[in-house]
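Course assignment 3, question 2. Fill in each field.
Student: A.L.
Task: Predict the tertiary structure for the chain below.
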Amino acid sequence: MCNNIFMNVVEQEFLDYLKNDKRYTKDTIRSYQNDLDKWFDFLLREDYEFNEVDPKLIRNFLSIEMEENGVSHRSCRRRLSCYTTFYSFLQQRHYVEDNPFLLIEGPKMDKKYPSVLTRDQIDELFKLNGERTDPLMLRDQCILKMLYYMGLRASELVNLEIQSIDFRSRTARIFGKGQKERLVPFSQDCLEAMQKYKNELRPQLMGRKITQIFILNEDGEPLTVRGLEYIIDSIEEKCGLYYGLHPHTLRHSFATHLLENGADLRVIQELLGHSSINATQVYTHVSDKEMKQTYNTYHPTAHKEK
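Answer field:
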């Protein structure tokens, strides 16, 4: 019989470890907790203790998730990563002897390359948004330029505090995943958009409120990631554009355009806050794709081959 109370205790120990030792964000910890709850529910249904798990049981779980529950290969791979980390933690605490998840290979999936905008599309986006006459244009222009010129994650932008921005040196201190700190520069064009928002609109949004968060919603409150996504969607609608914009689209465009202009991959890794160069290398494939498209468009023999 699976001991539900003990599993809850062990799960909480693990979540505390992620928070206090690994310094993971609340959103990441919540994601781990959701994945663990699904795993524990499965163990309860199958009447297994968490220390009785073997590769056959894990494969059965994955098969049910993908074939019966419609869970994507990508989500299953993410869950496997969570469970592998969890069972390594259990090993360290001597709750289990082995980590059976180390024997499991995740489901294969097609490589998805990040979607990026061309430099002409970026220029058009800034131009059309700058022509808006509604009061929130200054904030939205500031958001667009910070995402593109600084390559920020959505969570990094919404949590950025004004004291972390050095307007004189055009740099910002960013706290990324796991509270990893990095210094990110930004352009003169970005600086002007940030100062215009800071001086003209932000005080109006704040009113009598006191907050250090730089980007605010129309009620003077800090944005959420979902709120930022909503703003990006509304920008497209107001500008009459249909790029399928997402905060990450501008981050991906930032990295790809740097690479195309000769920036070193290691520098891009630091600017993005990637802990591993492998995460940054995806942009070399994006760049190769654009290079092939350019070749097919402009090389005279390419048209003959078609």
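Instructor remarks: Residues 26-46 form the longest helix (21 residues). The mean pLDDT is 87.
Grade: pending
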